[in-house]
Amino acid sequence: MPGLFVVYEKAAPGVGRITSSMQVLNEVDYAAQLEATGQRYYFVPLDGHTGYFELDENDDVVAINSRDPWPGALVQDTVAVLEVATLPGVPATDVRITGPSTDATITHDGGDLKLRVGLPGEYAISFEAFPFRRFETRLTVTPTALPVPEATP
Are 131 and 66 in contact (CB under 8 A)? Predict the structure, then answer.
């Protein structure tokens, strides 16, 4: 992953002084070299998928943070046709749902995401609620067993 090594030394309690920064071709070897010489460093990913800046009230950078995975999960990853599937605590974001009966994007206002699907099959549910990384999960919808009528004599 492309990134920038920021080498620093402890300047005071809770404060690091940047001594150098560098982008290198072989990041694994450079990290090993820094560690072998006891140098402290912070790796800044240069793609928008794994890191972000934390800003203060003046929009100045105060920290570089890692984009963590969204911690949620479906209550049940298998439901019957027309049974409600719940993904609790989804942040406000656009949610994409794809499967045999749909390929749609919906705007979710935040809170529990409840889905009811009319056709059996495999469905993908995905969203990107910044600062979390892109989330994707699978929902299996099984056919509903139809009641068998009793035979009448």
Answer: no
DSSP H/E element including 66: strand 61-66
Cα–Cα distance measured from residue 10 to residue 145, given in angstroms and rounded to the nearest whole number: 66
Q: Kindly state the tokens that stand for 49.
A: 């998928």
Please give the Cα distance from 139 to 153 (Å, whole number). Answer: 43
Separation CA 113–CA 120 (nearest Å): 19
pLDDT in tens, 102-126: 899 999 999 999 999 999 999 999 9
Mean pLDDT within 6-29: 87
Cβ neighbours around 114 below 10 Å, total? 12
Report how far residue 91's alpha carbon sits from residue 107's, in angstroms, rounded to the nearest whole number.
Answer: 11
Find out whether 118 and 85 touch, Cβ atoms under 8 Å. no
The ranges assigned to domains in the chain are 3-66, 78-142
Task: Give me the chain's average pLDDT, please.
Answer: 89
Q: How far apart are CA 92 and CA 139, in angstroms?
A: 20
| CATH class for the region spanning 78-142 | mainly beta
Please say whether the beta carbons of 77 and 109 come within 8 A.
no
